[in-house]
Write a structure and sequence with these properties.
heterodimer, A: 112 residues, mainly beta, 7-stranded mixed beta sheet, B: 114 residues, 6-stranded mixed beta sheet, 4-stranded antiparallel beta sheet, 55% strand
């Protein structure tokens, strides 16, 4: 793999179920981010991690949790999915302070 | 906190028309500025960037100049093509506390017709 890989690419999930969205990078970047993309709202930051072992809350963290056990992986978990979490989720990693971010291809999640 | 405001879409243009998508920002310090593009069904791709005041980013005929005095980073292209139809996001990368974070605008959908 090269860059960032997200899985699954899409998922339909029953409300109340638990779901983990996976994100793996092979660039050895320290920082990683999870965004959700909603029509008319752009991309909003859910959680971030500046380095392995640390995480922080973004703009819309409620209902989501993350972990960063190692540099490469940054899974996003919905403990009990609700319909308002229907969205497209993007994982990203910047190369440094003044450089661009690389994005995964996204996970389209529908909660019914 | 940091924020990015970009013009509402959708923007509909005829092929070969001139494009401007406005973007202004609010940030402390000296953020880096970016334009990302999202083609239908795909993730975000970096289009261009500028890391300091007066820098001009350019790529694929698109340009944007980092204007600190007006806190703007407007995207321009002299002659758009149908293949430019996409959603364009303005973004900044800056420090919030001790963390560097990307902040995005809401996106502007561009539709180019023949």
């Amino acid at each position: 793999i090269a860059g960032i890989t997200q899985a699954p690419t899409s998922q339909i999930l029953a409300a109340g179920r638990r779901m983990t969205l996976r994100c793996t990078q092979d660039m050895r970047h320290n920082a990683m981010y999870w965004y959700r993309q909603d029509l008319g709202l752009g991309l909003r930051l859910i959680h971030y991690s500046n380095t392995a072992g640390t995480t922080g809350k973004g703009e819309v963290p409620d209902g989501y949790s993350v972990s960063r056990a190692n540099t490469d992986d940054f899974p996003l978990t919905l403990a009990s999915a609700v319909p308002s979490q229907t969205s497209v989720y993007f994982c990203a990693t910047p190369t440094g302070m003044n450089t661009e971010a690389f994005f995964g291809q996204g996970t389209r999640l529908t909660v019914v | 906190g940091n924020s990015v405001t970009q013009m509402e879409g959708p923007v509909t243009l005829s092929e070969e028309a001139f494009l401007t998508i406005n973007c202004t920002y609010t940030a402390t310090g000296y953020p880096s500025l970016f334009w990302y593009v999202q083609y239908p069904g795909e993730g975000l791709q970096l289009l261009l960037k500028a890391t300091k005041a007066d820098d001009k980013g350019s790529n694929k005929g698109f340009e944007a100049t980092y204007r600190k005095e007006t806190t703007s980073f407007h995207l321009e292209k002299g002659s758009v093509q149908v293949s430019d139809s996409a959603v364009y996001f303005c973004a900044l990368l800056g420090l919030t506390g001790t963390a560097s974070k990307l902040t995005f605008g809401t996106g502007t959908r561009l539709q180019v017709t023949l």
